[in-house]
Specification:
By secondary structure, the protein is an all-alpha fold. It has 2 domains: about 110 residues, no CATH class; about 110 residues, no CATH class. The chain contains 10 helices and no strands.
Length: about 240
């Protein structure tokens, strides 16, 4: 069951966060044809994963994968026109997708993945999770914070948004590695270094510090969450 969920979850994460460029996001908001195209990307990628992992009887599942992306994304697009914050839309969208994909696991399909391919699936979930997925989630959360507190926009430098994005990806990857190799002290060291650098730059404005702190804590939480998931799988598979 867990392996099957991993397969369709990898298909979702890769199609939604690696194979969906910004221009496609903008186009599908205004055209049903591009929304269908995006849903077809999910269908084709999931189909290829099923072929590689030798899943059988996947016709119904592929149909549901296609339709659920088409319907859920269509609803999100309609809600976006009602000026609902992007952060809330993103959370709702992903919860809906994850839930439907989880329900698909009730189809007791035989999955013939080797230990190597299964582990590769879990690592893919972890890496995409701590990079693109987390980056987009945190970006939308930070933008939401600015939207409800306009004073933050005056305080924050424009380059902080972009530099912080890439620094966040690097720190989450480091945390991911520290947890996988069972070196949690590395996380404490990373947090200490980051705190020291913030102090050295003299950024002592209360609102700015709160903004950065929330982003850091969410970033660390997501990295640890994905890393613990992958490590749990590796331990159960007796890989480590």
């Amino acid at each position: 069951m867990l392996e099957f969920y991993a397969i369709i979850l990898v298909g979702h994460l890769v199609a939604d966060f690696l194979l969906q460029p910004k221009w496609l996001v903008e186009k599908k908001n205004n055209s049903i044809l591009f929304l269908i195209l995006h849903s077809l990307v999910h269908l084709v990628l999931t189909f290829l994963l099923f072929i590689v992992t030798e899943v059988e009887n996947y016709g119904t599942v592929l149909t549901i994968v296609f339709l659920q992306h088409l319907i859920i994304d269509f609803i999100v697009i309609r809600l976006r026109k009602r000026s609902i914050p992007e952060f809330k839309l993103f959370i709702g969208d992903q919860i809906a997708h994850f839930s439907v994909l989880f329900l698909l696991t009730v189809f007791e399909l035989e999955v013939y993945t080797s230990d190597f391919s299964a582990i590769l699936l879990y690592f893919t979930i972890g890496i995409v999770g701590v990079t693109r997925f987390s980056s987009i989630l945190i970006e939308k959360l930070m933008n939401y914070m600015v939207s409800v507190n306009p004073e933050l926009k005056k305080i924050l430098a424009e380059d902080l948004k972009y530099s912080g994005k890439f620094i966040g990806i690097i720190e989450r990857l480091l945390i991911f590695i520290f947890v996988i190799i069972n070196q949690p002290l590395g996380i404490g060291f990373l947090l200490t270094v980051k705190s020291w650098l913030r102090l050295k730059t003299g950024e002592d404005e209360n609102k700015r510090i709160e903004y950065v702190l929330i982003g850091t804590l969410v970033s660390f939480f997501l990295a640890i969450l994905f890393a613990l998931f992958v490590r749990m799988v590796l331990v159960e598979s007796e890989v480590i």
